[in-house]
């Protein structure tokens, strides 16, 4: 699945962005928090999407059946 690869690349880019913000000593800590919050929210959504797609790849639904993705989640 190409989408899994693209999501993994996006997660890697978000990690690099966070590391860049953390390494910049010119940014005050409270501003770093404000800059990283939306990035970390995006990362959480992408991580869940990646888990869902990986689950579906490994456990494809039967024809004419709902995928049942919510059954394996803990939340």
TrEMBL record:
In residue numbers, the region (Disordered) covers 55-75
Protein's UniProt name: Chorismate mutase
Q: Which organism is it from?
A: Sulfurimonas lithotrophica
């Amino acid at each position: 699945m190409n989408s899994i690869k693209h999501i993994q690349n996006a997660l890697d880019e978000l990690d690099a962005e966070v590391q860049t913000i953390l390494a910049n000593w010119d940014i005050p800590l409270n501003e770093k928090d404000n800059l990283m919050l939306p990035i970390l929210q995006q990362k959480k959504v992408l991580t869940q999407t990646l888990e869902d797609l990986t689950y579906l790849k490994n456990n494809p639904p039967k024809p004419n059946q709902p995928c049942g993705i919510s059954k394996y989640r803990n939340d």
